[in-house]
Design goal:
single chain, D-Maltodextrin-Binding Protein, domain 2, five-stranded mixed β-sheet
Length: about 325
């Protein structure tokens, strides 16, 4: 069944008035000062882009400035740990991919938090990963890649933004189902991982659809397959992984908005309601579609259940693949 999710790629010029969150008579209504969004990835990546779009749109409905603070490192755990330890008052939020919320805490034992350290607000975006190759790589399809990798075990390399990140697990699942031996080359962020793919230092990478399609149009990468269940509207000629010859393969990434655990429920509901109202704009829907992401709505309770289900799924893959911090 297709999940409904909450779009977060909002436009700054939307103006919607919302009532303040319920608060005790002695307390000032939320918010009465700027709100900070922590992003556990470097500036410029897909998670950072989503966070900055939120930061641009939310002031119109919150009545306060929203500031983005990048705290990258250790597989997205550094920034996530800071957010988890912040006061649960709604003034520090986290925008993170599944990596920072679920995967990396299972890989980095020193993370100091887990998915229960947060109060989920909204599933922001769900987008498929795309397997891309350097144009000089000696294969032009998934079938040719698998044949080459099996004939040359350990010779090919793939890059990621760090151990335990979504592209890492996406690639490990591919290796398991295709029976190939491809070497993982982790970087401190996705930007460096992409640079070395474009330079030819590594042959492969699982990337987000927007970046992958943009680089393919300029001939800097070759698109091999979509990790999700459907082809991309922006590149309909690219097959899904199952269509390309890896049956049973399906891997979709997502980005969510969360607050520290114990953040009052009225604040959680206020933030979700604000985002839902903003998300209804045609501009937001169009922007979302341009990134091959699906718009929709989930309640905080549904998002919480989804996170626990994802924890079980990713945990099994991490244990089976023996993934650990590198």
């Amino acid at each position: 069944m297709r999940r409904t999710i909450l779009p977060a790629l909002m436009v700054a010029h939307v103006f919607v008035t919302m009532p303040p969150a319920v608060a005790p008579a002695t307390a000032q209504p939320y918010p009465n000062r700027p709100v900070k969004i922590i992003v556990p990835t470097p500036a410029g990546g897909p998670v950072d882009v989503m966070a900055r779009l939120l930061a641009n749109a939310l002031p119109a409905v919150l009545g306060q400035n929203v500031i983005v603070e990048n705290r990258a490192g250790a597989g997205n755990t550094l920034g996530s740990k800071v957010a988890a330890a912040a006061d649960p008052d709604g003034y520090t939020l986290l925008v993170s991919a599944a990596s920072g919320l679920i995967m990396s805490p299972m890989v980095y034992k020193s993370a100091g938090y887990d998915e229960n350290s947060f109060a989920p607000i909204a599933l922001v975006a769900e987008t498929p990963q795309v397997l891309v190759a350097h144009p000089a790589a000696p294969f032009g399809s998934v079938a040719e890649l698998v044949a080459y990798a099996k004939a040359n075990p350990g010779k090919l390399n793939y890059s990621t933004g760090g151990a335990g990140t979504l592209p890492h697990l996406t690639a490990e699942l591919f290796k398991q189902l295709s029976g190939t031996d491809i070497v993982h080359v982790p970087y401190k962020g996705s930007g460096d991982a992409i640079k070395d793919l474009l330079s030819g230092r590594v042959e492969l990478m699982f990337d987000g659809p927007a970046t992958a399609i943009a680089n393919a149009k300029t001939g800097r990468v070759r698109l091999l397959a979509v990790a999700g269940p459907n082809r991309l509207a922006g590149a309909p000629e690219v097959p899904t992984m199952a269509e390309a010859g890896v049956p049973g393969y399906e891997f979709v990434g997502w980005t969510g908005l969360a607050a520290p655990a114990a953040t009052p429920k009225p604040i959680i509901e206020r933030l979700r309601a604000d985002i839902v109202r903003i998300a209804a704009t045609e501009d937001a829907k169009a922007w979302f579609a341009s990134l091959a992401a699906e718009p929709g709505i989930q309640s905080p309770e549904e998002f919480t259940a989804f996170i626990h289900a994802e924890h079980a799924k990713f945990g099994a893959l991490i244990r089976q693949a023996g993934i650990r911090a590198e």
